[in-house]
Amino acid sequence: MYFAAEVDKEKCNGCKLCIFSCPEPNAISFNEDDKKIVIDANRCKNCGLCVVGCPSKAIEIVLL
Question: What domains lie within the chain, and their CATH numbers?
Answer without folding.
Answer: 3-63 (3.30.70.20)
